[in-house]
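SAMPLE LOG
Freezer: B-3
Tube label: C17
Construct: single chain, 200 aa
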Amino acid sequence: MYSRDASAIASVLEPLGYEPEEEFNALHGQRRLFFVDRSRNRQADIFLDRIEMCHKLDFKHRLELSEETLTPADLLLSKLQVMETNNKDYLDMVALLGDIPLTEGDDRGIDLLRIRDVCGSDWGWWKTVSMVGERTRQYARELCSHHPELDAAVMQNIETLLEDLDHTPKTRKWRLRARIGERVRWHESPEDIGHEPDDG
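STRUCTURE (predicted):
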């Protein structure tokens, strides 16, 4: 969602039983809102203009590219940026890579141009996506060994994605940061900006 829609978000969620976490929203409301439906044990974590977790994924001016959600490339990047990847993250990525084709310049698919744009200009993004992508390849390989009915497109798309990352043209800024490498942390920890609702 866009930050300009923050008031409208609250007016939609509150009648559905979601209560705003007032303190969290007061501190982070320019970029993130949190609502809790305690009676049904549900949460709504809403990012505004960009997703900030291990990295910042700016989607300003990109929400119009898809009618109902982020583009497949942005959805995949939102998962590939998570260093502490859990089983659900891996399954989400395998589903995306199995169901949606890789494309170039077509946002209906997983647009490699979008991934190149994000990772080719930021070494930290490239490093994280490469690492998580490799772990996803290992996860998918293990999953396919137990479920041979899974579409072969999953492994093919992961292989193509990782190969494309290696050959993505890099900016001067990327190359300068690459010289420092892992000596300086290149990502944030989600718990630094995360939120756990009160138990009450």
